[in-house]
Amino acid sequence: MKKHHNVWAIIVLLALLGWGIFDAEFLNRQEPIASSGEQGNGQIGIEKGNTAPDFELQQIGGGTVKLSDLRGKKVILNLWATWCPPCRAEMPDMQRYYEENKEKGVVILGVNLTDTETSPEAVADFAKLYGITFPILLDPDKEVANVYKAISIPTSYIIDSNGVVQNKYIGPMSEEIMENMLSAVK
């Protein structure tokens, strides 16, 4: 009887492993994203050298922000949620980095995965509590999170002044990490 349990356990583990490999490969595939105004390597996408896919989202406090309107500035695109401990941990560093570099043409866009939050007001309360002054955008349907493949958060993209993706970072960013990533970006 124990042999049957062991055999079934092995079969289940192999099936899960196979599914995990397939799922990881499937999730990492990129679909072409249509847009006008291609730059970089001529492709729109989220890989290094691609023009970052454009989007427009509501900002807490009112108004909208469109990524392509920020051409000419270096952008840190940070996908996050208030309930995520690493996201919470990086916010003070992001705020300090933003304050020190906003006059140098650096913008941080905090794209909140709003569908995972209790309410948009909770996001606004979080931003107020942490003293966040960089734009916090609401992504209620995870459209941007899906395009930018934010499977794990926080996920950040470094986008140069031409709108081209230069780097991707998964995990909480410190001021030092942001400085190192942006120092080589025009």
Automatic annotation (TrEMBL):
<feature type="domain" description="Thioredoxin">
    <location>
        <begin position="46"/>
        <end position="186"/>
    </location>
</feature>
<dbReference type="InterPro" id="IPR000866">
    <property type="entry name" value="AhpC/TSA"/>
</dbReference>
<dbReference type="InterPro" id="IPR013766">
    <property type="entry name" value="Thioredoxin_domain"/>
</dbReference>
<dbReference type="GO" id="GO:0016209">
    <property type="term" value="F:antioxidant activity"/>
</dbReference>
<keyword id="KW-1015">Disulfide bond</keyword>
<dbReference type="InterPro" id="IPR036249">
    <property type="entry name" value="Thioredoxin-like_sf"/>
</dbReference>
<dbReference type="InterPro" id="IPR050553">
    <property type="entry name" value="Thioredoxin_ResA/DsbE_sf"/>
</dbReference>
<dbReference type="Pfam" id="PF00578">
    <property type="entry name" value="AhpC-TSA"/>
</dbReference>
<dbReference type="GO" id="GO:0016491">
    <property type="term" value="F:oxidoreductase activity"/>
</dbReference>
<protein>
    <submittedName>
        <fullName>TlpA family protein disulfide reductase</fullName>
    </submittedName>
</protein>
<dbReference type="InterPro" id="IPR017937">
    <property type="entry name" value="Thioredoxin_CS"/>
</dbReference>
